[in-house]
Amino acid sequence: MPAFGNAEVAEAVVQAGATPVFADIDGSTYCLDAAEVNAVVGPRTAAVVVVHRFGRPADMTGLWEVGQRHGLLVLEQGESETPNGELDERRAQAAFLDRRLRGVRTPESGAGHTYQQYVVRVPGNGRPDRDAFARAVRSRGVDCRVPVKTPVHRIPLFRRDVCLPETERAADETLALPVGGLSSKREMQRMVSACNALGGLLQPAF
């Protein structure tokens, strides 16, 4: 299962009598990387728990192949369905941001992305620069939040000594900007202006 997310999935695994084993994510989709899953499968592995993240579907083809190769269950945790009208609006606003944002890494669109959250990467020196960027954007009246503050493998109850570089990097660099029915065109432009005024000062680290 991924460590990039909330602890509820790990809690459910424990309640089912199993032990969570964490695999790294794809740094573009924030979902499990099939190759990383394959690398941590062991003789006691029973299932792969896939979590679709921020409205971006995981690579189910690759993950199903891993499951079939090792005889594992592949379980999916989906996200709530979005009404078509709201989905169209989210995608239109995401496209607006994709075209106009500078100095931050915009999300990979991908097939079927519903933009439950519009998650950008703030380049620079990881968490310190991301947190400073978030404070500055909020001071300009733009709502934003850190989507995953602590990866699950760093939470004391589930702490594991594992190497998950993409998970760590995503936790340090990601920031969710608002999209959806509450964002007017004027609010969207204000968000772009605020982010670009700050993001232009940073040297992209990608």
Automatic annotation (TrEMBL):
> What InterPro entries does this protein's entry cite?
DegT/StrS_aminotransferase (IPR000653), PyrdxlP-dep_Trfase (IPR015424), PyrdxlP-dep_Trfase_major (IPR015421), PyrdxlP-dep_Trfase_small (IPR015422)
An example GO BP is:
polysaccharide biosynthetic process
Instruction: List UniProt keywords, sorted A-Z.
Output: Pyridoxal phosphate
The record's section on Gene3D superfamilies has: Aspartate Aminotransferase, domain 1 (3.90.1150.10), Type I PLP-dependent aspartate aminotransferase-like (Major domain) (3.40.640.10)
Q: Does this entry carry the keyword Membrane?
A: no
Q: Which SUPFAM superfamilies match?
A: PLP-dependent transferases (SSF53383)
Enumerate the GO terms in the molecular function aspect: pyridoxal phosphate binding; transaminase activity
The similarity comment for this entry is:
Belongs to the DegT/DnrJ/EryC1 family.
Annotated protein name in UniProt? DegT/DnrJ/EryC1/StrS aminotransferase
**Whose protein is this, by species?**
Streptomyces fructofermentans
